[in-house]
Amino acid sequence: MSTVLTAGRLSVxxxxxxxxxxxxxxxxxxxxxxxxxxxxxxxxxxxxVLRTLAGGGTPAEDFVVNELRLPRVVTALLxxxxxxxxxxxxxxxxxxxxxxxxxxxxxxxAATGALVVVVxxxxxxxxxxxxxxxxxxxxxxxxxxxxxxxxxxGRLIMVGIGTAAVLSGVxxxxxxxxxxxxxxxxxxxxxxxxxxxxxxDALPLLAVTAVLVPVVLLGCSRALQGLELGDxxxxxxxxxxxxxxxxxxxxxxxxxxxxxxxxGPVSFVALTAPQLARRLTRSPGPNLAVSLCxxxxxxxxxxxxxxxxxxxxxxxxxxxxxxxxxxYLLWLLAAERxxxxx
Length: 342
Known about the structure:
The chain contains 14 helices and two strands. By secondary structure, it is mainly alpha-helical. The protein has one domain (about 20-335): Orthogonal Bundle (ABC transporter involved in vitamin B12 uptake, BtuC), CATH 1.10.3470.10. Strand 1 and strand 2 form a beta hairpin. Helix 9 (about 200-225) packs antiparallel against helix 11 (about 240-265). The longest helix is centred in the N-terminal third of the chain and has 36 residues, at about 60-95. The chain starts with a strand and ends with a helix.
């Protein structure tokens, strides 16, 4: 059920349940972020964390919160939001819940670009650039190989799965060619990690998401709802199907590539967050805004758990998201089987 607010010539349509779901995810993300900023070897109370963020903390608290911990939290929120939005776009465009950067090979392509830099002995900044380049090149290649009078969802998934398999083999080979220390650094990055992330990692992703998110949510959301009705119905509604699909695919690939550059190829967030958003809203639509909020909450919660599950040792966040995402998929398959749909 949707509600329409009208003020003169301006009208806004929204679904109350979707609004509540998005607000709940944002509150959860904010609460976990405050807990993360205050926990560690130098514990700070939530009240003092909020006071420090407002500029009222001591010099020591300001350094710990704003310089050491805040960049990691911001990176987690941005990576989760970017991956979730990319996953929601892919799943809507291909009309398949398996449509995500993990399945379509884009994260593997980003990993290939990063590993090429590692083998060449490049810096961390060059590694991030290589990840972005690898993701974009892979996205362009998958779309080109899938094109036959347009992009068909099933064909895109099949080509993406094949591309992911090929790139996984290439990545394994590149790891064998790297120096021991470089290979260890690359394996940690391939798992998905937020350890040691600073403002240099968060700001590029922040700049791109600040541009792409409003464009996608405000400029393309309604047209994407028309596209989910089918190409013929969308065309009848005035949607330029081919142009819209290419634009949204480019945005999704760029978001996934930049997220991989910031935190490595974190698994299952792009696949799981849109499905969780769909169940929270009980709506079959793209649920872009709710997916974005769900992804941010999921990622920052997983990072908090990764820092606290094992005493004295921090797990890579990709391990936690992999366990949670894999468990969710098993539950989903069991539920689908009980319902007789598989």
